[in-house]
Amino acid sequence: MIEILQSLRLTLLNTGYAKLGTSWNFDNVISPFTRMYYITKGTAKVYHNDGVYILKPGYIYLIPSYTYARYICEDYHEQYYISFLEEINNGLSIYNFKNFEYEVKADEKSLYYFKRLVDLNANREIKNSDPKTYDNRPTLLDFIKQNENLTTKEFIETQGILNILISKFITNNKLPKEINLTNSNLNQILNYINKNLHLPITIDELANKCHYSTDYFSKLFLQTYGIRPNKYIQTKRIERAQLLLLTTNDSLEEVAQKVGFENVSYFSRSFKKHTEKTPASFRKEQVNI
Fold first, then answer.
1. Boundaries of each HTH araC/xylS-type domain copy (predicted)?
2. Which residue ranges make up each domain of the chain?
3. How is domain 185-287 classified at the architecture level of CATH?
4. Contact 81/37 with Cβ under 8 angstroms?
């Protein structure tokens, strides 16, 4: 396990300080990189991983890669922000260990690390806060290339700060002693599922992406994640639907379509099976909380 953790690679994309108002309002954001925030003034909201996080001063926040999220600022807030790529051996993601918090009270050194990262990486700020302007391959490659402008000292210190900051969100120090690296390409399958929940996804399709037989893929998925692939996909569809019901005014038909259900009737039955509530009652209860 130590060898795997030693292979963790964190690649800085952006860092800066932003003063943001009501235009900081973005839906359906799914990025291949991690975001991290330190809030200094005001408040905002981020919806992700089936929860709502109120961004407030004195806390740091983590939004993992390939996570559906919605960002809302109803008035004004100021933040230090960082975005970076993360990867460990053979394409595995550290987030698959599922031992992360997404909101952590900042300690006395947290603000220093955010400020220091900005100082080390001058002119690495995002020019436009709308993810559509920078969440694309050509722009991300340009961000990555900017790391070549760092001196050896700056690069090593940058890596150290990123490692320290991400470690603050790890709540369980006991990681698996062994990980079967032959299963690592399943990590790419999880990313594919999360990005394509609006589409029909078959087990045959996923198995083909791994160059496995359907039967072997299903057994390997169950062995690795403790859940059958079909159930995993269905669970992720319902989780996404809950977030859409909570954060948008989309009709039930629109929500069903966005999470890959062909019709509202099937969507409602599946939703109730997972949550014991209909989509309409779930939305009504949440609005009235």
1. 187-285
2. 2-167, 185-287
3. Orthogonal Bundle (1.10)
4. yes
